[in-house]
Write a sequence for this structure.
């Protein structure tokens, strides 16, 4: 009887570690980080982050199953506490993802004074990568491969990306 | 806003061969009304992303002012607009 009391049932041992809940958290972290690191590289996964939302959906499924396991009658109290904390953390990550990709990224000045179609593009002179000053008017009049330039594409970006 | 050195670094790493201009004082960025105040590292002013196609007479023929800074013009959009240039 004593031996029975001290011995660990193998099925009890595998039950102790609730991997579902931790996999859910890891997948949430991956779903968050993979937007800027991976999915932003292709327009189809960048313009709307559906790939990341899919990953978050999978994470939610893992967390749901993990929570159910954590709240099973035979599990200890700390399993329930851990389950709730890890799930709350994942929800926080999801909220921050929505905020940073769909909400905060739209907080930009409207650029109402930007030149519109049909208007003259204001000229400017800036330094190129060789330290040489170059004006828009020069770019427009410089021949490309011996032929007159048809136009110039101006791309303004935030610095490095 | 990148310095000419940072832009050179970027060009070399990415293999870009087109012209990169540096606007550390936001002169052109201000003239085009694209300043995104305080949005850069350490609260510096940077540019809000935008693309303009200018024809040889200096007239703007196509503009893209994105509403979400993650989303930029796609190459095929720009090529389509460039076809209309004479």
């Amino acid at each position: 009887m004593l031996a029975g009391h001290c011995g660990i049932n193998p099925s009890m041992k595998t039950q102790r570690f609730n991997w579902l809940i931790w996999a859910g958290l890891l997948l949430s972290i991956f779903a968050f980080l993979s937007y800027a690191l991976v999915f932003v590289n292709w327009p189809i996964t960048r313009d709307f982050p559906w790939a990341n939302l899919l990953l978050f959906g999978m994470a939610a499924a893992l967390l749901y199953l993990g929570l159910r396991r954590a709240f099973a009658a035979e599990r200890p109290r700390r399993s329930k506490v851990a389950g709730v904390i890890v799930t709350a953390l994942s929800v926080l990550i999801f909220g921050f993802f929505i905020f940073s990709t769909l909400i905060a990224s739209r907080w930009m000045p409207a650029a109402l004074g930007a030149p519109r179609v049909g208007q003259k593009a204001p000229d400017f002179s800036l330094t190129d990568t060789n330290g040489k000053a170059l004006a828009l008017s020069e770019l427009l009049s410089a021949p490309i491969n011996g032929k007159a330039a048809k136009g110039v594409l101006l791309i303004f970006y935030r610095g490095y990306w | 806003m990148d310095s000419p050195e940072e832009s050179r670094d970027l060009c070399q790493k990415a293999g870009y061969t087109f012209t990169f201009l540096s606007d550390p004082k936001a002169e052109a960025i201000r003239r085009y009304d694209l300043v995104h105040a305080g949005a850069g590292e350490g609260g510096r002013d940077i540019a809000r992303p935008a693309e303009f196609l200018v024809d040889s007479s200096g007239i703007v023929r196509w503009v893209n002012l994105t509403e979400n800074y993650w989303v930029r013009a796609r190459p095929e959009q720009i090529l389509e607009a460039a076809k209309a240039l004479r």
